[in-house]
Amino acid sequence: MRRLLAVLACSFVLAGATPARADSPPGDIPRLTDDRGRVLTLRGWNVEDKIHRGEQALSAITERHFRDMSAQGFDFARLLVFWDDLEPVRGRFSESYLRKIERVLDWAGKYDIQVLIDAHQDVFGPAFGHRGIPAWATRTDGLPFTPHPDDWFAEYFEPAVQRAFTHLYEDPDLRHAQARMWRVLADRFEGHPAVLGYDLINEPMGELREGEDLAAAARRIERDQLTGMYNRLADAVRSVDRDNWVFVEPTPIVGEGVPTGLGRIKDPKVVYAPHFYNTAMEAGADYDPTGGWIESYEAAVTVYPKTYRVPVVVGEWGPLNNTLPNMGRFYRDALASLARYSSGWAGYVWCYGGGYCAVDGDGRFRTNKEQTAAPYARAVAGVVRTEAWDPVAGAYRLSYDARGYVTELSLPPSAGGWRVAVSGGSLRGDRVYARPGARVTVTVNRG
Question: SS3 for 270?
Fold first, then answer.
């Protein structure tokens, strides 16, 4: 999501929520775990190539992306893939495209980066000048479509686009085709060591009814259409992959402080994966620390995972203009909020240049984005008691009750290095070893 319509206003702002604790007692939000039961924290970036197609698909993504992310301490990438490239002709899946995805996954694995495979769509797909659902799976009933080159997100509200989503959710043959697409992807990559899970569809939208406001429409679409779709697609994935996580997104309207209407996804390994964008900031405004947006977002976004006891990973976030006066404060506030309730996040986007890019052409962080690189524990072998990062003091502290295996730390580059101290266990490189039952405390300070 880049820019929502002005109709998304402060009327959606909700009261603040109590943040979830890291040890996730009953009623709070559970943490993501690995196959050994270790508590995971994911920190990373989206990786994409929206420009190239066919034989040139994914060519903008290189090994350098993963080498540079890893060098900065990140361990997670959300990889955008497109159904229109995977199945350009109905029933014919591109082996070339699958090999290109595999090459990207191999690079990620080489640098110990876990990958979320994201079935991405923007404004449905190529029938409307974007990427995602193939033209052969786009049905509009002849309704009109007018491009909005200066505000492409407004194209989601064009009648043809909205009707296309309705057909995707409701037509039996399109339901079958979408499930088949996911079976192909999951069957091909379920055993790849870099794959963490599958994001079943990016920023799903739907069709507004006459007289229905956007918040009400979003909750209805989530309840009546997305819940069923996610259960179908989860079943499709599980027919070939029993182990990796499935990530489900609400509509982007949750970004305005509207709790989702999404229902239960009947799968044992579900992650709730909202995005974190602000209407005014996407339109070019500076962050307003007194506006209450982060607080209202946190209140809204934590309702679903508390209700259904699933972990949260924020799949996209980060403003376009990072140089405005309050953007340093925004990154501090946003990162603190994300740490209170999520198991991690993927910023938008790891590329080399301007706009949303994390780094410039030389690989240096663009203004304020360096705040995303901070010490954290990639995997904690035990029950987390407390965890906190103080960006002003440059101090990280982790306390946990050990349950065996190894805890892994991630330390980004720092001019003076880092001083790491461990009580209750022993430190070897970036790994902490402790006997089951030990209370372990890790402190990390700038050198």
Answer: strand
User: pLDDT per residue over 405-437, tens digit each?
Assistant: 899 999 999 999 999 999 999 999 999 999 999
Q: Tell me the three state secondary structure of residue 283.
A: coil
Long-range contacts from 125-133, C-beta under 8 angstroms, 24+ separation = 125/83, 125/84, 126/84, 127/164, 128/155, 128/158, 128/160, 128/161, 130/155, 131/50, 131/82, 131/84, 131/85, 132/82, 132/83, 132/84, 132/202, 133/83, 133/84, 133/164, 133/168
| Cα distance between residue 423 and residue 68, in whole Å | 32
Residue for token digits 């429409």?
A: 217
DSSP 331-389: HHHHHHHHHHH-SEEEES---BSSTT-SB-TTSPBPTTGGGG---EEEEESEEEEEEEE
Q: How many C-beta atoms surround the C-beta of residue 306 within 10 A?
A: 17
pLDDT of res. 27: 54
Angstrom distance (rounded) from CA 380 to CA 134 = 41
SS3 label, residue 133: coil
Give the integer Cα–Cα distance in Å for 325 and 224. 42
Confidence of residue 404 (pLDDT cuts 50, 70, 90): confident
pLDDT tens per residue, range 52-92: 999 999 999 999 999 999 999 999 999 999 999 999 999 99
- Does residue 1 register a pLDDT over 60? no
| Bridge partners, 33 (sequence order) | 39
Give the position of tokens 């079976």.
183
Cα–Cα distance for residue pair 234/156, rounded to 1 Å? 25
> 138: Cβ–Cβ under 8 A, 6 or more apart, which residues?
124, 125, 127, 128, 164, 167
Q: What's the token pair of residue 279?
A: 């209407």
Task: Give all strands (DSSP E) within 230-297, no chain letters.
Answer: 245-248, 270-272, 275-276
Within 10 A of 443 (CB to CB), how many other CB atoms are there?
Answer: 15
- The overall longest dimension of the chain from CA atoms, in Å, is 68
Helix (H, G, I), strand (E, B) or coil at 70: helix
pTM, to two decimals? 0.95
